[in-house]
Amino acid sequence: MAAAASAARHGVQVALIDERTTFGGQIFKRLGPGFHLADPADLGNDYSRGAQLIEGIDHRLITLFNETLVLTIEGSTVITSHPRFGVRNFSFNNLIVAPGAYDRPVVFPGWTLPGVMTAGAVQTLVKTQQISPGRKILFAGSGPLALAFSAQLIKLGAPVYKVLESAPFPSPLSLARLALNVGGNLDLAADALRYQSILLKNRIPFLYRRIILKAEGDGRVESVTYGKVDRNWNLIPGSEVSESVDTLCIGYGFFPSHELLRLVDCSFSYDENKGGFTVDKDRWGQSSIEGIFAVGDGTGVTGSYSAVAQGSVAGLRIAHLQGKLSESDLERAARPFHRELAARNSFQKALNKVYSIKPGIYRLADKDTVICRCENIKKSEIDPIVESTDDLSVIKSYCRAGMGLCQGRNCQRQIAAMISEKHGKDLSEINFATPRFPVKPVEIGLIADPSIQEEKYFIT
Question: Which of 68, 121, 301, 364 is the most buried (most CB within 10 A)?
């Protein structure tokens, strides 16, 4: 939305494609149909920030296409599907890909039980449907997300009773680094203080150096076990604690949704704390593929404030490329956004040193744990294949792990970690399985060609 508004304000014709029914994504999600919002302040600062962005795309040069799923990119054409209008092709001179991110899956015994939910799923239920998923919610996660989401859920009325943070309590040196980089991030610091006050006011225990070990229950989660961890998030034996809950909320950050960018063969680097593989791009958001820009958490997770600034910069750059802005005007208009990005990135680096993801998060599964939930493939079925290969695509072919509806989003990183441990390779050396069209599931009738009649291939 920021990219579209930025480009349109300088005279660029824009098509804005979004797969959701309403604009705003996950962070700025709107209320569901049938709800009336008496006071927007009740839903916090993110709701009002989202409203401003949505107002910005109400522009004569922006054509909005919601409920439109991008299936693939071929050359200078984006191919999409819509539930009513079918397949549409969009030709472009420049393309900005802002695919967002999804909750990091954490694989442990019982993670597929009903009642075990990601932070994003719980937030959606509570925020847009005003429904609490349970009466006793345990939140387990790490980083700013553990503080922010648990506080947001409490404020919205969800009964969070305890929060587990896998990282240790920040050291004086870590706090000093954060303080030195707080300039330009006072809004984030104020948010953190507000979230902390919510937890304190509601007397919510916040335990450091704890990780979730398993969830148990008959048909849904009824109890969870967690324990203390060392510096690499490995369990300290004898520290296990079991408690009764009816909902377990998992919030260990996000993975970028970079399938489209992999499909067009953009170059990537690796940063576990930004979600793994991150898109290589210049300061304007230009990827390694000419004409294709990549912005937001789908290119490497850095948060919504940074995403808005990245989008604004990319929109300005495209306005310049299309002759709407001179070089000097471009630099002048982009300067405050580049300044903001520098401040955000410095603060993010300081945060990552405090809350870096450790390898123990990939060591929670036992042999009977389902790794690929779509195809119901257990760790014991994948282990023998990992013994013989370090290629994710080969593993996928042998046992179908990664072939389900999520197309590997839930299991590929876990399998990559199994390969890493077995073959002594760094996670950055293990590429994902080959991306395929369509990048997300779509009804076959929307993309099939009914004019082709090949009866010999079908048995009736």
Answer: 301
